[in-house]
Amino acid sequence: MGDALKWLVLSVVMLFQASTAVLWAAEAPNPISAVPGAPSFSVSQSELQDLQVRLDRIKQQVSQANNLSLMVGLQDSVQLYINDIDTLQSTLLPEQKQLQAQLDVLGPVSPVEVGAEKSEIAMQRADLSEQKRRIDASLTTLAALRASAAGLIPQIAGIRRSLLESEVTLRSGSILGPEFWSPLFSPRKDDRQRLSEFVEQAQDALAVAWQPGKRLATVLLVVLALAIWSWGRRVADRGLTWLCIHRMPEGRLRRSSLALASVIATVLATALAMQLLFYALTRQLPLTPMLQNFSDEFEKLIYLCVMITGLSRALLSTEHPSWRLPTISDSVAHALEPFPRIVACTLLVLVGLAQISNVSGMSASAILLGRGVIALVVTVLFAMLFRRANKARRAVVVAGDSPEASTTLAGLIYSAATVAMIISLFALLIGYVSLARFITYELVWGFLVLCGFYLLIQLLKDSFEYLFSAKSASGKALKQLLGIGDTRLEQISIVLSGVGRAALLLLAIISMFVGGVGVTLGQLFSQVVAILGGDGLRKLNVVPAHLLNAVLALLIGIYLIRSLRRWLDNEFLPKTNMDPGMCASLSTLFANIGYALVILLTLSSLGIQWTNLAWIVSALSVGIGFGLQEIVKNFVSGLILLTERPVKVGDLISISGVEGDIRRINVRATEIQLSDRSIVIVPNSQLISQNLRNVTLGGSAQGVASLELTFPLDIDPEQVKNLLYDTYCEHETILDKPAPMVRFSKLSPEGITLTVTGYVSSPRIVAATKSDLLFEILKRLGAAGIALATPAPTV
């Protein structure tokens, strides 16, 4: 019955497979006949010409740009252009591969093709070759355009640096002089005219949006944008807060998630409100170039101010002190609470006016006036903020509350900010207005970077702490999956958290130098990628797509080595005739070689070419020659110990006054266990270069149990000799061959000294044997009435 059931099931399965194959064959089109009519994506010649014209226009704008804001916008245009080309290339590459695969199926042209079938194949081959030729030509042109556009990015960066240097080193009038304030009280005629043109264009744009028949829609859109900006932000904040409280685990992770949720709600609500407001004003007619430039710059400014208020509200958390991430007191948090909003509103007004002067093309004196006022007001606000914070901290100390824990990093940030404010004020007084404005912007940017990355670092730390916690569900799953304990799980959490925080700190440092006020997240990301993916790293041929392969190769390699080592230690080596020391040496040597191969495999998976590691080898050679020579010497000595085996695990050795059993031979040092179970770590080089006594080398070493006793002069030497000899012979651990012996060692006024010697099977039992012999000898001497000699008194 069982065999019949098996045959029935097997028949059903085979019938199902056969029917499925028939259906697939019936539904699948003929690949040869379907090729000529298959749609193929390609880039037309007119599209390539448009891309070339677009690139030429960007180059012309770069050559004519004369201020930093225009250069930032052109850099965005170049990056968008590169992204468009990448999109086209990513679309063409699959087509190219498909056509090549189809041509490979058809094969090369045969010498003679006759008959209808062969002529059809020839036509298909010609059609496919023509399609592939067009796609190859398009890809070649796109690659050339992309390379030309990519070359603009470092050129724009160089022009920006030169413009910045010329601005910050330009000396104008001091803020105490009347010439500095003259554009405010007696503006020039051309400045008034340019401002009037900007106002007229703005009025025209508003008039178009406010024309009859469109007013109701404009009002509704503006009201909706304002509602989202104010009421919608609160709703989003409460919704994300509810999610964090009810979906995130209780503890530090929930606290950091609440802070991040507050920032996300603020930014999302502002972005949606800005899009609605922009649509309300431009849905009928696009903005003029002047208004468009102002709109782009003012949008960046709004996001900057929103980030200032959002991060400060998330980190200070005056409404919920238990959610606060930094270790600051409530009084200090309440003292600092109004300043971020004041700074944000001040920047929104003053920088917005300065942007109007920039886009309208006002005179240099008007632009310098705006920069000076921004630098002066913002520097004064930061000085007031620091003074308020110090006053609140002193009040906490006077009140007897526990003061805040100060760190070295906080002290360095405070000192750097103080020095920057002093330099900014001094630059304003001596006439370097642009330098003061640059320092002020860097202060604001530094505040954003430090607060933002502090929040990310805390979130990363808390996430790893929860994910690898032995009490969490994820931690329990990892323990069961990997078979590790709580200590190892905690170590993994600490290592991953440390690596993540180090990476974020590196990104923060890079962002401090490459970013600034008015830089978008996309620009910042592209600049960070440009730095991290520079020529030095690009030569290593590290491709992001290979990172997953490298990580998998590392994890799988380590798992295989550990599994094979356990198999060697527990199954294979115990079944051989090798001694335990040899087994331990082979296991350690296998693990060392395996880990080295895994590292090489990981680097190969990353795509790193060994010819590109010459600079790393050169740096390591210098380090080895100076600081790493001891480590390398011990490593090589460890390999010699594992291969030549002058000593092995389990040997009893004596070196430099240290005597004990070798417990383990590591890569750098050897562990020696003493008789009291303590461990002495001896570098491997000492075992090679110094005189070493291996007591158990060869496995046939015997121990010597020797005692030296002094008796009075009036004893019978023969009686004592026989007593000692019999005691040794009757002891179970004393060997018969060589036989024990008693020697007359010394005759002195203090007495007669006899030395009795016997051999035991192992040096490890000498101490225990001597102890047993002494007990037995003293017992027999007492029974025979023989006493040991008494030492002469010392005068």
Word description of this protein:
- With 795 residues, this protein is an alpha+beta fold.
- It is built from 26 helices and eight strands.
- α13 (364-398) packs antiparallel against α14 and α22 (614-626) packs across α23 (629-644).
- It has seven domains: 1-30; 35-168, Methane Monooxygenase Hydroxylase, Chain G, domain 1; 179-467, no CATH class; 468-531; 533-617, no CATH class; 628-700, SH3 type barrels (Roll); 703-784, Alpha-Beta Plaits, CATH 3.30.70.100.
Would you summarize the structure shown here?
It is found in: Cell membrane. With 795 residues, the chain is α+β, with helices and mostly antiparallel strands. The N terminus is likely disordered.
Question: How are the elements arranged and paired?
Answer:
Blueprint: H1 2-27, H2 31-34, H3 45-64, H4 68-106, H5 116-168, H6 178-185, H7 189-209, H8 215-247, H9 252-282, H10 289-316, H11 330-336, H12 338-359, H13 364-398, H14 408-430, H15 433-467, H16 473-482, H17 486-514, H18 521-532, H19 535-538, H20 545-572, H21 580-605, H22 614-626, H23 629-644, E1 652-655, E2 658-665, E3 669-673, E4 679-683, H24 684-689, E5 693-694, E6 703-711, H25 717-730, E7 741-748, E8 751-760, H26 766-784
Antiparallel strand pairs: 1-2, 1-5, 2-3, 3-4, 6-8, 7-8
Helix pairs in contact: 3-4, 3-5, 4-5, 6-13, 8-9, 9-10, 9-15, 10-12, 10-15, 11-13, 12-13, 13-14, 13-15, 14-15, 15-17, 17-18, 20-21, 22-23, 25-26
Give the radius of gyration: 42 Å
**Adjacency order of strands in the biggest sheet:** 4-3-2-1-5
Count of strand segments: 8
Distance between the termini: 108 Å
Helix content: over 70%
Shape: elongated
What does the average pLDDT come to?
A: 78
Low-confidence stretches: 1-40, 534-540
Number of domain units: 7
Secondary-structure content class:
alpha+beta
User: Total number of helical segments?
Assistant: 26
Report the major sheet: 5 strands, antiparallel
Beta-strand level of the residues, as a percent range? 5-15%
Protein name: Mechanosensitive ion channel family protein
Domain Mechanosensitive ion channel MscS: 631-696
Domain DUF3772: 144-200
Domain Mechanosensitive ion channel transmembrane helices 2/3: 588-629
